[in-house]
Amino acid sequence: METVPKGENAQTSLKVRVWRGDAAGGEFREYAVPARENQTVLDVVTQIQREIEPDLAYRFACRVGMCGSCAMEVNGRARWTCRTHVKRVAAPGEALEIRPLANLPVIRDLATDMAPFFDKWARAGGTFQPKDAPDGAVPAEFSVVPPESKQRREADAGIECIGCGVCYASCDIVAWNPDYLGPAAMNRAWTLVNDVRDGARRERLEAVSGDAGCHSCHSTQSCTERCPKNLDPSSAIAGLKRTLFWDSLWGRLR
């Protein structure tokens, strides 16, 4: 199927292939939209939805690269579509191919179900557990964490993750092992392992030590290469491996 806006020709139109369907299956459909200067992939998807296919499902919020909810796969690579300019990913005359993020269930069209991603975040112990504060009580005093300390620097290196799922969709291990926790969940675990205020260090390390955890990572570093926030989940996973080795050696794990 090809829909060309009136008055457009091949020199001013951009050819786009968009995946349409749901969890049961689907197909690519082809559209043509006006090619504009400084056009982002999200602009293209929005134009298709507003002017050609009003039932096209996709997800976005801020449009300025703060929320990460507009992540999709563009020409075979997971990206934030709001900050991906068409000129960066498609040469003149080349088609754009847009599909939902890999490794996640498809709700409809370009919208994926993020529940498995966040479920694994929880399984990896991704929730801060304050020391000396049972049953969710607030500690009596604030902990002081010197900014120059090694642990503070390790925690700060990964704290800016916003859970967009780009690393998860880019991970080869998740693709063939659906139980694998994934880079974002373990980056979060590493951040909390280095947070001296957290009281669940041992439980968190045990959560990332099994077959679905950090030792399954093959260090291909696709997560680091493609992280839109320029974080380094590969290094975080390597840090978990080192910590588990030493804690196991010294008997600090059950």
UniProtKB/TrEMBL annotation:
Keyword Repeat: no
Residues annotated as domain 4Fe-4S ferredoxin-type: 151-181
Pathway note: Carbohydrate metabolism; tricarboxylic acid cycle; fumarate from succinate (bacterial route): step 1/1
Gene3D superfamilies: 3.10.20.30, Alpha-helical ferredoxin
Cofactor note: Binds 1 [3Fe-4S] cluster.
Enzyme Commission identifier(s): 1.3.5.1
GO biological process: respiratory electron transport chain; tricarboxylic acid cycle
Domain annotation 2Fe-2S ferredoxin-type: ranges: 14-102
Cofactors required: [3Fe-4S] cluster; [2Fe-2S] cluster; [4Fe-4S] cluster
Enzyme class: oxidoreductase
Ranges in a coiled coil: none
Catalytic activity: a quinone + succinate = fumarate + a quinol
Family listed: Belongs to the succinate dehydrogenase/fumarate reductase iron-sulfur protein family.
Protein name per the record: Succinate dehydrogenase iron-sulfur subunit
Lineage: Bacteria, Pseudomonadati, Pseudomonadota, Alphaproteobacteria, Acetobacterales
